[in-house]
Amino acid sequence: MLTRDVLADPVALTRALVDIESVSGNEAEIADRVEEVLPTRLKIERFGNTIVARTELGRPQRVVLAGHLDTVPLHDNWPSTVDGNIMHGCGTSDMKSGTAIALHLAVTEPAPRHDVTYVFYDNEEVDSALNGLRILADSHPQLLTDASFAVLLEPTHGLVEAGCQGTLRVLARTSGKRAHSARSWLGENAIHKAAPILQRLQQYRERLVTIDGCEFHEGLNAVRISGGVAGNVIPDECVVEVNFRFAPDRSERDAQDHVREVLDGFELDVVDSAPGALPGLDERPAQEFLAAIGQPPRAKLGWTDVARFATLGIPGLNFGPGDPNLAHKQDEHVEIDKIRECAVVVRRWLTA
Amino acid sequence: MLTRDVLADPVALTRALVDIESVSGNEAEIADRVEEVLPTRLKIERFGNTIVARTELGRPQRVVLAGHLDTVPLHDNWPSTVDGNIMHGCGTSDMKSGTAIALHLAVTEPAPRHDVTYVFYDNEEVDSALNGLRILADSHPQLLTDASFAVLLEPTHGLVEAGCQGTLRVLARTSGKRAHSARSWLGENAIHKAAPILQRLQQYRERLVTIDGCEFHEGLNAVRISGGVAGNVIPDECVVEVNFRFAPDRSERDAQDHVREVLDGFELDVVDSAPGALPGLDERPAQEFLAAIGQPPRAKLGWTDVARFATLGIPGLNFGPGDPNLAHKQDEHVEIDKIRECAVVVRRWLTA
């Protein structure tokens, strides 16, 4: 139950949200509970299981606080348990502790110094086509685009992780000609032809680039390879799936051009592409946020929904109490102190 | 029905055998039919669905004529049809036309110049553990080892294909360390580490070797490759399946040593190995066979059960009316002329 007492305590609220099961696709109940406790002073709109709640205080600037409501599938790690300073359970780290901080502030902070758009959304852990924030950005961009800065409460272990890297996935294919392996010279071995692809990836030197004081470390990797017909057949196809994680100073197009240059001479199909997000730390709300937390930012190296804000022209950063290394793991947990500490930081930023 | 008239005509007998369905594992009926028509002058023994029928004429030399009774699965290509000189159907080429020649001679040739051991066996088209000839060679080798030469009536399109190449299959593995692909430098990419394996295979120069006038062409090939965990994970394992087809002047051990030398530095597991068979064309029955056919031999480049005779110390060759390129194909067929022509050659050899 999301009682007044629970809403007043981000730790109790984290636990209450964790204990409402909300594996992606099953967010109706948690969205209902969130919607019914949001104060009427906010302008509340619901789209499926995504909820937008906006202060309307006439402040010169507006910021976004966003968190997703869903989790990856349970794995004998639900409901939550608490052991000293540790709260265990699916979603504790990714990211109900962060989402709890946003909901706690939405309910308990009537007068933030900037207008705030709170976004609670569904289907972050599954296919991008279902992502509630993506759908909202497509269907009602005006609910987001009047903000000048976004904080996504994804797990960062209480650090500021600014921007995010882009990601590009391509299939590099080689083709050949089948033949019986006892008469291999009648065929052309497509797996052998993939040798230079692997060699170029092995020899690739990754770029390090510093943007707004954040160091982004790129990576170009084969993540899957497959080829072969049968144990006695010269294979006529080999496919290498390559993932390029690129710094946000490259556009998606630049990233594609770069991979095409590295793998020049091979047939490439782009299967997936998402832009990075620049840190945007020169914006005033970002500077205020860094002042509130009192420590330097670092680059977010994974891809997060911060990039969705970036494509709307809204710089953003990741900041939350969870530990990103525990996300999606069976032993997912969060430090209770970290939840309190992060809640204090966000409130200090919004009220200083 | 295997009537006297049918048994007297290798073409009619081929068709009758094709029309007894005998996909591997289902050879009981065809074995029953074969067993009941074998003449009583032969010493007949049956082991499961494998039949051995031996002349006991006291000749100084003994030869083997062997054919398997099973086929690969039907593929809308059964029962047989005839169109002019072509008989279509599953098993026409591989190898009921050859098996029919052996059965035809067993029934119609009472006085061959060498004693003959006829072998009709099951499960050639499936796992080696089930192979009727292999089982016979293990359990009753004395029924085979008194022969000095073997003719296996596998499809060769009426040519003499002597000996056979050996085959070795190894898995070459690389290992690494998983990491999120957004932080790839924390992992070790096992797919990238496979680059030198593919490169060495690509650069490999195949050996050609001539033995008893037959040219054997070796081949060392990747036949399968797999690796990868997920689209965003640095892979911790890559496996390349390598098939070495080697000339019969190498032992299995030599072949393994050679592959270990080529792929030095990589973890290798042998998953499958079968020796080659030397042509053995200096044996008197082999010379007589070549004289009967009147054309030069060539090397058998695939692996056949001739190698099972070779491991018993019996040289052998492949000779049959079927077309090896049609084996296991939906449009499998045999030339009717070729059946007659090959039957004449084998009879000439046995009676000259």
From TrEMBL, chains A, B:
Pathway: Amino-acid biosynthesis; L-lysine biosynthesis via DAP pathway; LL-2,6-diaminopimelate from (S)-tetrahydrodipicolinate (succinylase route): step 3/3. Its EC number is 3.5.1.18. GO terms for biological process: diaminopimelate biosynthetic process; L-arginine biosynthetic process; lysine biosynthetic process via diaminopimelate. One of its GO terms (molecular function) is metal ion binding. It catalyses: N-succinyl-(2S,6S)-2,6-diaminopimelate + H2O = (2S,6S)-2,6-diaminopimelate + succinate. Residues 168-264 form the Peptidase M20 dimerisation domain. InterPro entries: Bact_exopeptidase_dim_dom (IPR036264), Peptidase_M20 (IPR002933), Peptidase_M20_dimer (IPR011650), Peptidase_M20A (IPR050072), Succinyl-DAP_deSuclase_DapE (IPR010174). Coiled coil: none annotated. It is an enzyme of class 3 (hydrolase). Keywords: Amino-acid biosynthesis, Cobalt, Diaminopimelate biosynthesis, Hydrolase, Lysine biosynthesis, Metal-binding, Zinc. It comes from the Bacteria. Its cofactor is Co(2+); Zn(2+). Homodimer. This is Succinyl-diaminopimelate desuccinylase. It comes from Dactylosporangium sucinum.
